[in-house]
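hi! just following up on the protien thing from before. the input was this:
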Amino acid sequence: MPEPVVYEESDTKVLPYIGMTQREFIGVLITGLAVGVAVFALYALLNKFVFGAVLCRPQSTGDCTQAPNYAMIVAMIIGTIGGVANLARMRVYRPLLVGIATAVALFGIHTVLSGAAWYWALIGFAVLFTLAYVAFTWVARLRNFILALVVTVVVVVLARWILVA
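and the predicted 3d structure came back as:
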């Protein structure tokens, strides 16, 4: 007859978050920067050559003022897919949460930066996306998913509030 297994209590503490190596941190920085630059480039190109050309012609029944919004929607979706794929390739914890939170928090940034010269807008996109990716990656590392989701929603709401104000 086999002997019963006795489990002993362990003195090891489980941290409330998943650790991040320096390599992962640098990878998240580079991914955020790349996604910001890509979203800006896609937004500018789509606004000028696709949606602006289609909606702003004289025989169009579309509203020309909506062309930047449509361009931003498509650019943000493509950028988010690329960012999430790269974060998943780097094995960053909960990449989809990071990508969706960044997209929701920064949607509409084109209206804030529309009055700036293109190079300042490019820098603004790059910096804001980098900061958002880093912030949401840290929040997503909380072990408790519900807590990570609640904190993410709070940070997204604060970011949207600051963006609109």
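The CA atoms of residues 22 and 127 lie 19 Å apart.
Helices lie at 22-55, 67-89, 95-106, 109-112, 118-140, 145-164.
cheers
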